[in-house]
Design goal:
alpha/beta, Rossmann fold, 2 domains, nine-stranded mixed β-sheet, 9 strands, binds nicotinamide-adenine-dinucleotide, binds magnesium ion
Length: 340
Amino acid sequence: MTDLSTTVYYDDDADVSTLEDETVAVLGYGSQGHAHALNLHESGVDVVVGLREDSSSRAEATEAGLRVETPDVAAAEADRVVMLVPDTIQPAVYEAIEDGLEAGDTLQFAHGFNIHYGQIEPAEGVDVTMVAPKSPGHLVRRTYERGEGTPGLIAIYQDATGDAKAESLAYAKAIGCTRAGVIETTFQEEVETDLFGEQAVLCGGVTEMVKVGFETLVDAGYAPEMAYFECLNELKLIVDLMYEGGHMGMWNSVSDTAEYGGLTRGEEVIDREGMERILEEVQNGEFAREWITENQTNRPSYKQYRDAEQSHQIEEVGGELRKLFAWGDDEQAAEEAPAD
Ligand code: NAD
Ligand code: MG
Ligand code: MG
Ligand code: MG
Ligand code: MG
């Protein structure tokens, strides 16, 4: 019945014992790092966590039964080094661990930015791969503990050993991803679709649409509280319907009036050429250069944009309303409780 353009890999397509002779160094113990390290450990893979001497995560990782070393020591010992520190810090961390990567070792990422835009250039003899759960780390961990998993991607940038794909699938299995399904992509495709999606649709597009919708109503004299509910709060209900049943699931659940109004008016709020420009700047590296420079100069624009966002009226109104109303809290708690 399925008609996908790509193969989906499941547990039967992967063999964790492929990693049995390896030591895996997980660098970082944040969202992804803690989930990968704990899931690997419980899947029987030999793990060492790489953290700075002064890292506040050291105690947590040790208490969870994991071995902790500094990133350079962990990488030297390991056969597979998994870069799970923030993307903007990875080039500096790479300099510190580079000597620990011997020919035949693997350098593995969960996002391809630094490889794709040439910020990290590993030696030829090293396998360079990606195993990227399509999910925040706490879900990678929580679903694994329940015997489930989150979907994931694998990608091979450099296959010096010839084992890169089998080992990537084994790793994906060890962190639970093949329980849900894994597809193969390339570093280029992962990076370009990820950046485009977060800029044009998920993070940038949605917040801008909510903000301008809110401003349009408030400027026309409607109550900011009404504008907040209509443009921001209700968004979750709509997104939940889309998540469960796609666009048709959502259209079928809202009123015919909402459906007709939405279908006829939606197009008017979207700037298709703007979206194409965003994609072009991702593809030609302009966005990457801007963001790299921004980070090298202490993030002057980032701070300005952030301050403007923080002082927007929608934040003020929302902060007050979220204090007064307890909606969603119970539902959230129920969702996050263990499934048993
Ligand atoms: P994070 O910000 O949650 O955690 C980073 C961790 O790195 C910190 O907790 C700390 O332990 C460590 N760290 C910070 N500075 C360090 C340094 N100088 N030296 C050593 N360790 C240091 O990061 P994250 O969100 O888990 O992202 C890690 C990678 O996973 C990134 O490449 C990201 O793009 C990718 N990714 C993240 C998600 C997600 O939902 N968070 C999803 C898919 C892929
Ligand atoms: Mg090594
Ligand atoms: Mg190997
Ligand atoms: Mg991203
Ligand atoms: Mg309505």
